[in-house]
Amino acid sequence: MERPKRILLVEDEFLVAAEMCEEVGDLGLEVVGPCGSVEEAVAAIRSTPIDAALVDINLGGIWAYPIADELIARDVPFAFTTGYDRASIQDRYAEVPRISKPVPARVLRSLIQTILESRPAGRKAATS
Description:
It comes from Sphingomonas horti. Keywords: Phosphoprotein. The protein has 4 helices and 7 strands. The protein is an alpha/beta fold and 128 residues long.
């Protein structure tokens, strides 16, 4: 039996993270995290096969770009969840899907489906 898809959740706000974890779990997906810091997220990426990720772009005043870079290096599809507008995000991440918080449940489900489908068929989850 195939393991459930693993979604890395990077979010530093407890209530938002709890709600998103519940939504991801309700989809039959496995949550990795939630990770509340850049260091914690990078460690998770390096130690756990990840199929996709949802990344809050600002973690307690620290930009999450090192997380994005780790995901890109491992060819893991992801999206930013943020309260910031597109103009606030560095140009090199312009193609990364972005969704404004708070994220309604149906929008979150659609976003997860979209980023999971962006992984070509047969491509395995990134491993360390």
